[in-house]
C-alpha cells in the first residue's frame, strides 16, 4: 500500500513533486521527478518505450522520457540511458504499463515508470536498484 504526498517546491515557481511512501516499508521513499504544473498534468509524464520481438520473447525497454541520453554514475559504474536502447515511442504511463505486462524481458529506468510498475504489482519495491538517485528494475519471465 502506497501513500502519495504532493509537495510544492518553493525554489521553482509552478513546480511540484510527488513522494510515494510504502506503508509497509516506511523507510522506502520514492521521489518522482519535478514536474511543471499545467492544466494537462499527464502531458508532463511521458514514458519512452521500445518493444522488440524475437521469437517467443518480447523485450521491453522503458524509461522516463526526461532521462533519455543521460548517464548515471555509481562509484566506478556508469549507466548510460541510450536512445538506441530506450528511445522509442513516447506514451503515457498507462499505455506503457500495458506494453510492459506483455514483455518477457523488461528493463525500466525512472521514477514514473517504476512507480507505475510497482502500483500494477509488476515489480516488488525491494527489487528496485538505486543508481544516482534514479530507480532501475528488471523483469524476466521464465516459461
What would you note in describing this structure?
With 143 residues, the chain is an alpha+beta fold. The protein has a domain at 42-140: uncharacterized conserved protein from methanopyrus kandleri fold like (2-Layer Sandwich), CATH 3.30.1860.10. The protein contains 3 helices and 12 strands. A 6-stranded mixed β-sheet has the order 9-5-6-10-12-11. Strands 1, 2, 3 and 4 form a 4-stranded antiparallel β-sheet that branches. It is globular, with a radius of gyration of 15 Å. The two termini are 29 Å apart. Mean pLDDT is 77; it is low at 1-22 and 25-43.
Could you give a short description of this structure?
The protein has helices at residues 83-86, 93-102, 111-119; strands at 2-8, 15-22, 29-31, 35-36, 47-54, 57-64, 71-74, 77-80, 89-91, 105-109, 129-131, 134-140. It has 143 residues and is of the alpha+beta class. The protein has a domain at 42-140: uncharacterized conserved protein from methanopyrus kandleri fold like (2-Layer Sandwich), CATH 3.30.1860.10.
What ranges have pLDDT less than 50 throughout 5 or more consecutive residues? 1-22, 25-43
CA-CA gap between termini: 29 Å
Note the overall shape: globular
Q: State the fourth-level CATH superfamily of the domain at 42-140.
A: uncharacterized conserved protein from methanopyrus kandleri domain like
Structural class: alpha+beta
Question: pLDDT average, as an integer?
Answer: 77
**Helical proportion?**
10-25%
User: Largest beta sheet, briefly?
Assistant: 6 strands, mixed
Report the radius of gyration as a whole number of Å: 15 Å
CATH fold-level name of the domain at 42-140: uncharacterized conserved protein from methanopyrus kandleri fold like
The proportion of strand residues reads 35-45%
Amino acid at each position: 500500500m502506497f501513500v502519495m504526498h504532493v509537495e510544492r517546491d518553493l525554489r521553482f515557481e509552478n513546480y511540484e513533486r510527488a513522494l510515494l511512501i510504502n506503508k509497509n516499508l516506511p523507510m522506502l521513499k520514492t521521489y518522482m521527478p519535478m514536474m511543471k504544473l499545467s492544466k494537462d498534468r499527464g502531458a508532463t509524464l511521458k514514458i519512452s518505450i521500445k518493444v522488440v520481438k524475437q521469437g517467443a520473447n518480447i523485450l521491453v525497454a522503458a524509461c522516463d522520457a526526461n532521462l533519455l541520453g543521460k548517464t548515471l554514475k555509481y562509484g566506478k559504474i556508469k549507466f548510460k540511458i541510450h536512445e538506441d536502447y530506450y528511445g522509442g515511442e513516447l506514451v503515457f504511463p498507462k499505455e506503457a504499463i500495458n506494453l510492459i505486462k506483455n514483455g518477457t524481458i523488461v528493463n525500466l529506468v525512472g521514477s514514473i515508470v517504476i512507480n507505475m510498475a510497482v502500483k500494477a504489482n509488476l515489480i516488488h519495491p525491494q527489487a528496485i536498484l538505486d543508481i544516482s538517485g534514479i530507480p532501475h528494475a528488471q523483469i524476466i519471465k521464465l516459461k
